Amino acid sequence: MPPAQTRVDTLITNAYIVLEASGAGADAQQQALEAGREIDGGWIALDAGRVMSAGPSTQAAPLADRVIDAGGRLVTPGLVNTHHHMYQNLTRAFAPAINGTLFQWLTTLYPRWAALDEESTYLSTYVACAELLLSGCTTSSDHMYVHPTPNLIDAQITATTEIGFRFMANRGSMTRSVEDGGLPPKSVVQDEDTILADSERLISTFHDPAPGAMTRVALAPCSMFSVSESIMRATAELAEKHDVRLHTHLAEDKDEDTYALEVYGRRPVEYFEDVGWATPRSWVAHYVYGTEEENRRLAAAGVSATQCPSSNMIICGDAADAKALRSMGMSVGIGCDGSASADSANLWMETRGALLLARHRGGPAAFSAREALNMATLGSAANLGWADEIGHLRPGACADLVMWESAPLSQTGAFTDPVEAWVRSGPARAWHSFVDGKALIESGELKLAGLENILPRHRAAARTMQGLD
């Protein structure tokens, strides 16, 4: 049946559409237009949670129950956040911790986070997803590794399901308290049997491997300085058994090298390889301080990495060399990291940060806006093992997309390349945002019925956790 005779749920017209972000150099836009990766003045059709078709204005579009005129605005795949600690927005910009090193920051905040319960976890997750949506994010993972009470990830999934947000829950863990030579207090660590049993429970209850899934589960021991070698090995075996992803922090801070050599007699990457994690199912957060040889080994093994620009600049003083890692064949995505380090959950800002870091390191021709957008979409989707369905808008993809606000002042004078203008001439925010084909933002306003009730409850929980009430 010809497209003009079909009928779809939603049709977006009069848009500059990026179906797939790719390209570098001065002629990147022209190459993308000629290859059909971008459409200037086109339409895109959504139906039953999927992208059905897209085309230029000269091609007949299908009929639709709802038609949205984009007014020339930029439409991209929804951004994908591959590293976050959502509960940390309960201790955002906590003054006693803001000027410490990574280890000092952690030891200051661990006792505060020991007060986490199901209510505060639900509230912090709801707030984090709302904040992410405004920045153009439509899928997020979350690394929940503090478990002072049970069922915290259940509370997270309750929040993301209520919102209709695509989510990969990372069942984090810590086993080494300060009494065992680690950093966290005993109140937030768990024994290995508890961790493995709960990991099995979460996978069987919530992990959906089917196409179009809204919720998936990954396994994510926190870091080598907070878990035992045995739980790293057992978790890798469990992930293989259930075919789920693996996630952890790696080579984030120079102190990590010293710790790994003293405790394990190996550098962090060597340890990572020895415990069976150097596989294509693993993605690592930060990955700042690997050597060139280690980088090549991990890239060859299929490991991918997440760059967290703001957090690394605030705490670590350096960031992953995304361009170098990508040149080795490693998929590199973007994460905002926890809201007590980056203090913001804004994927547009992190995408811009990735562009700036690469150009600061390598010069003005080192990185383009399309490469940064590629990291935040296809690169991030690859981190999560989800690049078949998200991170692009090819027909059949999940209908997760963002129409970006054309800010009347910051975009004035930007005519020649809407993708470069988007990341250079911000700040930008979502004007319309769709997840699974459903509008969660319309005309810049969140369509979340529960948000008004959530905010005062979150404020009360945060003040209690910070010891202010």
Automatic annotation (TrEMBL):
User: Cross-referenced SUPFAM superfamilies, in alphabetical order?
Assistant: Composite domain of metallo-dependent hydrolases (SSF51338), Metallo-dependent hydrolases (SSF51556)
Domain Amidohydrolase-related as annotated: residue spans: 74-408
- Entry keyword set: Hydrolase
Q: Which domain of life is it from?
A: Bacteria
One Gene Ontology MF term: hydrolase activity, acting on carbon-nitrogen (but not peptide) bonds
| InterPro entries in UniProt | Amidohydro-rel (IPR006680), Metal-dep_hydrolase_composite (IPR011059), Metal_Hydrolase (IPR032466), MTA/SAH_deaminase (IPR050287)
One Pfam match: Amidohydro_1
What this protein is called in its record is Cytosine/adenosine deaminase-related metal-dependent hydrolase
Species = Nesterenkonia sandarakina
